[in-house]
Amino acid sequence: MDKKQYPDTSPVLAFVMSLCIPSSGQYYNKQPLKALAALISFITGIFLLSYVGWLLWVIWSFIAADATLTSLHYRKERRKALKDFF
User: Fold this and answer.
1) Buried/exposed 25-57: b ≥16 CB within 10 Å, e otherwise
2) Confidence at residue 83, expressed as pLDDT on a 0 to 100 scale
3) 80: domain range?
4) What is the pTM of this model?
5) Is residue 78 part of a domain?
6) How confident is the model at residue 9 (pLDDT cuts 50, 70, 90)?
7) Does 5 fall in a domain?
8) What is the separation of C-alpha 51 from the centre of its chain, rounded to a whole number of angstroms?
9) DSSP letters along 3-53, please?
10) In the chain, how many domains are there?
11) Which regions span the lipid bilayer (predicted)?
12) pLDDT tens track for 12-67
């Protein structure tokens, strides 16, 4: 691989990047395409996790709302039954 093709990266910059970007060592090893693929994969993973979390929250909200409405319905029915009983 031609050294002039990619600029030299300092070890300090590589360390800082390794804290922020997974597989940024690939960038330090002069493989920027692999580093870009790792960054895209990392960002996609974050978006997928947040989407799945949001979806689970929506499903849980519907379940909780349904349980609350069902509980209120049964409470009204029990009150009617108690009034009729006494």
Assistant:
1) bbbbebbeeebeebbeeeeeeeeeeeeeeeeee
2) 74
3) 11-85
4) 0.42
5) yes
6) low
7) no
8) 6
9) TTTS----HHHHHHHHHHSTTTHHHHTT-HHHHHHHHHHHHHHHHHHHHHH
10) 1
11) 35-51
12) 666 666 666 665 555 556 677 777 777 788 788 888 888 999 999 999 988 888 88
